[in-house]
Design brief:
The structure holds two protein chains of two kinds. Chain A is mainly α. Chain A has one domain. Chain A contains eight helices and no strands. The longest helix of chain A has about 40 residues, at about 40-75. Chain B folds into two domains: about 30-110 and about 185-289, P-loop containing nucleotide triphosphate hydrolases (Rossmann fold, 3-Layer(aba) Sandwich); about 120-185, no CATH class. Chain B has helices spanning about 70-75, 100-105, 125-130, 130-135, 140-155, 170-180, 200-215, 225-235, 275, 280-289; strands at about 30-40, 45-55, 60-65, 85-90, 95, 110-115, 185-190, 220-225, 235-240, 245, 255-265, 265-270. In chain B, the strands form three sheets. Chain B has a six-stranded mixed sheet with strand order 6-7-8-3-11-12, sandwiched between helices. Chain B has a four-stranded antiparallel sheet with strand order 2-1-4-5, with helices on one face. Chain B is globular and about 55 Å long. Classes of the chains: A mainly alpha, B alpha/beta. The interface of A and B includes residues 130 and 135 of A.
Chain lengths: ~260, ~290
């Protein structure tokens, strides 16, 4: 009985991965064939980008501030409190900026995509769209995925900037250190591989959160309860995948662009 | 019988009045043809070895209890679902194995009215009805005109700027009918159009379906479990002069309106109203009683 359950679960998992791969591939390749729904792309960019700005700014400032607080305490034990700026900027740009923004935006938008598309599925609006001769993947999914990629790129830059600024505020007003020293250390030790690493990651994370949110939304079944289930699955899966893929990308980028 | 023609949808030829020419040519190519179609979803077959056709001008009423696979059959008709076995021809083209991208243009030739209307709740009635026209980038002036004509057909012109959330259940179905009709489809699929509606509203919807059948002569496949609606469709016609449906003379039925019945996924009946009421099949008898 237990083996039977494991067998079924394994088959279900493989089938889900296969479905997701086909779904994500189709949504991606839609960009290379008309029609492309640019108005939908702009609307989604506004919802994802501008709509997520406040949470990204707040979480960026807070994280940068916490980094400065924690690192200053440890670094001063070695007489190295002066490198707080370098520590905060590198950590924000290479890791925390992209991952934190990815997870925050995923919590807000992957859930929103899954619930919106899931509601459309259970009320037969997706079937109605197909019956009217419109491809719902092209019309609803592709714009959301590419808006997620584009907006996460810019939101990550905002988060990085806010994180460094938040670290600066804590350094100056709470740790009573020199602000000029903080920002010059933050700037001078930045190198192109750091920036490339920080800006490549959101492209992958945006694709993950957009495609996972839409995937779970489009395969919703079981009425309103199913919509709730899809929303949870979308947020959990996209957040975990972002963290896992971050590990893989970091490993690859460190190999390609050694520090 | 010789009444003035009722108003058809814009762009259409003068409507043919319902009357004596209601016979199907022997060599007419079916609009829909199912052959030995079966489908299952993680369990026993939902439909098994189903074969039937819908000819030009025909209205086929699919009867059966809830959960017997009627909606599944309707979704197979325009390729929203794919059969596990068998052949489905829509407008002469095999769709059982057709790629989804090729199905989209084919689907635009068929209108579908969903069980709960399936209107897009973030769009106004105007944008819902005009959905296909907007995708085809038809000029706004023409869209407005055609939407108003379609809404006039379902007697809901005043809802033009409203959102679906402010409409009653019956009004949503009528808007869904207007959306299905706006491009003058070559086939209409109705999925329980009166399900969950009160008797008065149901009659309004059935009257619209009869009006569409008799004015525009669009072939259709209608799913219902309400016998009363099915019998009304068969025993009434639309009177353009009185602008409402009227009963056919006693003993007469619409010869192009016929019945199909499903039982546990199998098609157990295919015939006219007379065949239905005189059927000796135990399930048919039980369903009718």
């Amino acid at each position: 009985m237990a083996i039977d359950t494991i067998d079924k679960t394994a088959k279900k998992l493989v089938l889900t991965v296969q479905d997701y791969t086909l779904f994500a591939w189709r949504a991606f390749t839609n960009l290379y064939h008309p029609p492309i729904y640019w108005p939908e792309f702009l609307v989604q960019s506004d919802i994802i980008g501008f709509g997520s700005l406040s949470i990204v700014v707040l979480s960026g400032i807070s994280t940068g501030g916490v980094l400065a607080l924690q690192s200053a305490a440890t670094l001063s034990a070695f007489g190295a409190a002066a490198v707080t700026g370098q520590f905060v900027s590198l950590t924000m740009i290479r890791e925390l900026g992209p991952v934190l923004t990815g997870v925050m935006v995923s919590g807000r938008n992957a859930s929103s995509m899954a619930s919106e598309l899931g509601s459309m599925v259970v009320t037969e609006q997706i079937d109605a769209m197909r019956a009217l001769g419109v491809d719902p993947i092209r019309k609803l999914v592709t714009p959301r995925i590419f808006a997620s990629i584009a907006m996460l790129f810019f939101l990550t830059i905002v988060a990085d900037a806010c994180g460094i600024a938040g670290g600066g505020l804590v350094t100056v007003f709470m740790n009573h250190q020199n602000g000029t020293q903080y920002f010059s250390m933050a700037w001078e030790h930045l190198r192109y591989p750091d920036i490339i690493q920080g800006l490549v990651k959101p492209l992958f994370f945006g694709y993950i959160l957009g495609s996972i949110g839409c995937f779970y939304g489009m395969r919703t079944s079981g009425g309103t309860e199913g919509v709730g289930r899809s929303t949870i699955q979308a947020v959990v899966t996209s957040s975990v995948l972002i963290i896992f893929v971050d590990f893989l990308i970091t490993q690859v980028l460190l190999t390609l662009l050694p520090l | 019988m010789n009444e003035p023609p009722a108003s058809a949808l814009p762009g259409q030829d003068t409507p043919r009045p319902a009357g004596s020419d209601q016979t199907l040519p022997a060599n007419a190519r079916p609009v829909v043809a199912f052959r030995n179609v079966s489908i299952a979803f993680d369990g026993p077959p939902v439909l098994e070895d189903v074969s039937f056709t819908v000819g030009p001008g025909e209205t086929r009423i699919l009867l059966g209890p809830a959960g017997v696979g009627k909606s599944v059959l309707l979704k197979l008709t325009n390729g929203l679902l794919r059969p596990d076995q068998g052949s489905i021809r829509l407008f002469g083209e095999e769709i059982a194995t057709m790629p989804e991208e090729k199905l989209f243009p084919l689907r635009t030739r068929a209108g579908m009215v969903f069980q709960e209307g399936a209107l897009f709740d973030s769009l106004t009635v105007r944008d819902n009805v005009a959905y296909q026209l907007i995708q085809e980038r038809v000029p706004d002036d023409e869209i407005d005109r055609r939407v108003r004509d379609a809404l006039r057909f379902v007697e809901l012109e005043e809802t033009f700027d409203l959102y679906p959330s402010s409409l009653s259940g019956g009004m949503r179905r009528r808007v869904a009918i207007a959306r299905a009709l706006i491009r003058q489809p070559e086939l209409l699929l109705y999925d329980s159009p009166t399900g969950g509606l009160d008797p008065v509203t149901s009659t309004t919807i059935i009257e619209l379906i009869i009006k569409e059948r008799d004015v525009n002569r669009t072939p259709s496949l209608l799913v219902t479990h309400r016998l009363q609606d099915a019998f009304t469709l068969c025993t009434h016609r639309f009177s353009a002069g009185q602008a409402r449906m009227v009963p056919l003379p006693k003993g007469e039925t619409n010869p192009l309106t016929t019945f199909l019945m499903l039982q546990e996924g199998r098609l157990i009946f295919d015939g006219s109203l007379h065949d239905l009421v005189t059927s000796q099949n135990a399930f048919v008898r039980e369903f009718l009683e």
